[in-house]
Amino acid sequence: MLKIAKEKMPELLNAWAKIGKLYVPQDQDGVSNFLPWDGKGKLTLGQGNSVLPPKDLFFPRTETMYRYQRSGGALSLEEVVENEKQILVGIRSCDARSIALLDDVFLTKGYVDEFYRRRRENTLIVALACNVAQDTCFCTSFGIDPGRAEGVDIQVWEVDGSYILEAGTEKGRELLGQAPALLMEAGEGGLPEAPACNLKVDLAGVTEKLQQMFEHPFWAQICRKCLGCGLCTYLCPTCHCFDIQSENRGDSGIKFRCWDSCMFSEYTRMAGGHNPRPSKKERVRNRFLHKLQYFPERYGKFGCVGCGRCLSYCPVNMDITRIIGGIKEVDLNG
Hints:
This protein is α+β, with helices and mostly antiparallel strands.
C-alpha cells in the first residue's frame, strides 16, 4: 500500500490527467458532481456521494452513434468511434456495484453494446472508501462493503490527513507508477472500519413475493403521490432506458441515443397510439418490479445499490425502502 498527504492529492490528479481525461467529484454551484479535472476545481472528495452518478461516463446522456450521408443514389454510413482514455476517481462502493450491473446489461446475455464496451474498457476506476454513512445510505442491505469497492483498479482510504492507495489490478499498479515521487509506503497503520448504515431493508423473499403481486391493489395505492417526473431514473446509477432518434440536415444526418425513462407516459406508447402502461400505476409498478424482480430473475442480482439518491431528491419522497417494507407486509391471502 502507498500513501499521499491530502494536500498533495491535486498534484497526483494532475499527473494522472496527463494520460487520460480525468473525472473527479468537484463543487459545481454548491453541488458535488463528477467533472473533468483541470487542476483548478474545488475537490469534494470525502464529502458524501455525488448528486449525479458516474454512469454518464460509460452510457452518456446523449451519444451520437452513426453519421450518414446521401450522395445521388448512394448512402454511406459511418459509426462514431470514441476511444478516449478516461480515469474516474472517487466513486463509492455503491457506484462501483452499479457499474458492474451496467456491465451485465450491456455486455452479457448474448449481446455486446460496442459503444458501452469501448468506454468501459478505456476507463480506469479509482474508488474512495466511505468513512461515514449518510442517513439515506442502505448499500449494506445489498451486500455492498462501503469500505472496499468491487472490481476497481485502485482503492483509496482517507486516514488521518492522508490517503492510502492500494492497486487492485495491473492497470491500477501502472497508474500508481505514474507519480512515484508523490507516493510513499503506507507503513503498518490499520485501515478505518467501514461505516454501518443506519437505514436497512430486509430483502429476503421480496422477489418471490413480487412474482405474485402484478395485479395487486398495492400498486394503485403507492402510485398516487408520484409526479411522473422521472428524476429517480436520471439520478439512479443503474437505470439504463434509452431512446434512439435521428437528426437530418439535408442529405446528411446522425443517429443518436439519449436517456429515457420508464416513468414517462411516452416511453411505451406505440405507433398506433396504444400504451401498455397507460397510467402512473403501471409505470410505478414497472420501476419497482424491474429493480426487485426482473433484474434478479435475469442477472441474479438486485437492480438497486442502496446509494440513496432517489431518497434524497424525490420531490414527493417515493421511498424505495418503505416500499420494500410495504411489499413484505402485503397479505396475499387477504
